[in-house]
Amino acid sequence: SGKMGRLTHDGFLIELDKNFSRVRNSGSLFITIKRYEPKPRKGGKPNPEGNEPLCLIRAKLGSNAISTVVAQKDVAKFHTSFEAIMKGNMDGLKKPEKEKKKKERKDEAK
């Protein structure tokens, strides 16, 4: 569906969840998180995203790229939602084996 560009936080999270569904059985979804400093526009016009450093989050699936920027004051709220989507889509991963370690510790304590 081509490039989608910059989205609101909620729009980004909804699209991210949809992209995870598309790659459930095969394919790769690339997520990039980096510092982003908005530059003034041509002609000296101020950037609508301000001039404070932001966190840029991109998700790329084939030619479909979505992104959002998160201000420092919104990081905690955004991260909670982002983390929920990540956890909800990691159910195909194997869980670590913890049972054996607990039994071994009990044996050592005796």
How would you describe this structure to a colleague?
The chain has 110 residues and is an alpha+beta fold. 35% of the residues lie in helices and 22% in strands. It is built from three helices and four strands; from the N terminus they run E-H-E-E-E-H-H. The protein has helices at residues 9-22, 75-88, 99-109, and strands spanning 5-6, 30-36, 54-61, 64-70. The protein has a four-stranded mixed β-sheet with strand order 1-4-3-2, covered by helices on one side. Strand 3 (54-61) and strand 4 form a beta hairpin. Helix 1 runs parallel beside helix 2 (75-88). The protein is globular, with a radius of gyration of 20 Å.
Concise overview:
The chain has 110 residues and is α+β, with helices and mostly antiparallel strands. It has helices spanning 9-22, 75-88, 99-109; strands at residues 5-6, 30-36, 54-61, 64-70. The chain has a four-stranded mixed sheet, with helices on one face.
**Strand content of the residues, in percent?**
15-25%
Largest sheet: 4 strands, mixed
Briefly note the structural class of the backbone.
Answer: alpha+beta
Ends distance: 62 Å
Main attributes?
35% helix; four-stranded mixed beta sheet; 3 helices; 110 residues; 22% strand; single chain; alpha+beta
